[in-house]
Structure prediction request, 437 residues.
Amino acid sequence: MAPKAPKGTTDLIGEQARSWERFVEVAREVFTVYGYDRVETPAFEQTDLFVRGCGETTDIATKEMFTVYSVGAVQKLRDDEPLKDDQRLALRPEGTASIVRAAAEHGLVTPGGAPVKLWYAGPMFRCERPQKGRLREFRQVGVECLGATDAASDAEMIIMCMRFFEALGIPDSSMRLLINSMGDADCRPAYTEQVAAYLHEHADELCDDCRRRADTNPLRAFDCKNEGCQAVLSDAPRFTDNLCPACEERFDEVKAYLTAAGLDFEIDPTLVRGFDYYTGTVFEVQVEGGLGAQSAIGGGGRYDNLMAEVGGPDTCGLGFAVGYERIMLALDAAGVTLAEPPAPTVYVACVDDTVRETAFEVTRRLRDAGVRTLDDLQGRSLKSQFKVADKAQARLCVVVGPDEVAAGRLTVRDMGTHAERELPIDGIADGVKQMLA
Ligand code: AMP
Prediction:
């Protein structure tokens, strides 16, 4: 049987891999302008970091994490021996908890210091039911800004996210920016109780999970994908009607900044995002068309308690993450190609074995000069080498034959126009580069 990749994963080959590279490059271009620096964290962390970070009762922590055990740990489990904390590991389901952990571990945020701005790119892992736009290994780029308190930082985050989408080529008209406020320690407990009471009142219209959520984590019910629950939740008490004066004032400030920046947004009081760590401003960007049931291409918000929750100093933060695969669906629907074409290719054709060494040397010189060069590594006939060159969409073909080598000049054929030029072997790299230019 032919080998197969695991369910919910993808191979990015050729143009697809170049699209991912370009996606990361655009992220670098945009985020650098806003003062962000790159960060790389491990693909796995102690499970507890995500449980504490994302929230014990979130879908991510309860059903979507891929847990990783070493062979030694598996043996311990078989022997009913307890595992140490550092033997309980999980593939990262998201980036924020890891970045916050790294910032705390390395003391990046100093009292009175400037905000720390970091961006990342890489795979995330969630054991979800695979479908269009929903994978088990998917790729994200994201940013985290730690230690910025002002409402301006919320607005800057949203503006940068929209700027990133614009730079990727997602049509403005296809995007909806949704914002909400998740309140703070002053207003959230009372609001959560109101939602719990509302869920209990409507218990017989809710799914089993939401009935449980009414007791464990009522606000998570807003995330439920069940249509019946969504209908019930659309009439639930709204956070935006229950914010304390400080949160309301801050939310007004954020909205004023966004309006001044010319951004269209909608207030969505049901937007809570999938993690428990959010406080205050949250946002999500949705796209119409091309994405199946998955319309969110990115989102984020503030998480002012997360660093303290994972054991670091009490430092506020905010960020967002954008999913690569969903962006590709949105770009495909809009007819936009992200991948840059490969560099023009030159093919070095070797006429027979007597000139193989010269062909090898010519190839080496072209590559040393930075020209993308293919050569025959299979002893093929000249005719089939030309076919290979055609298939590889080579722009030029350098023909190395005994007569040419004896004359010290090589024939270079333009594969598009079929025009030919003779170039001295000595100056072959410069000559070819001129023809490509
Ligand atoms: P989240 O980390 O849940 O806030 O998601 C941020 C973005 O990552 C989403 O808007 C999607 O674009 C993407 N994303 C999240 N989960 C998946 C998944 N299972 N498959 C593909 N993309 C995802």
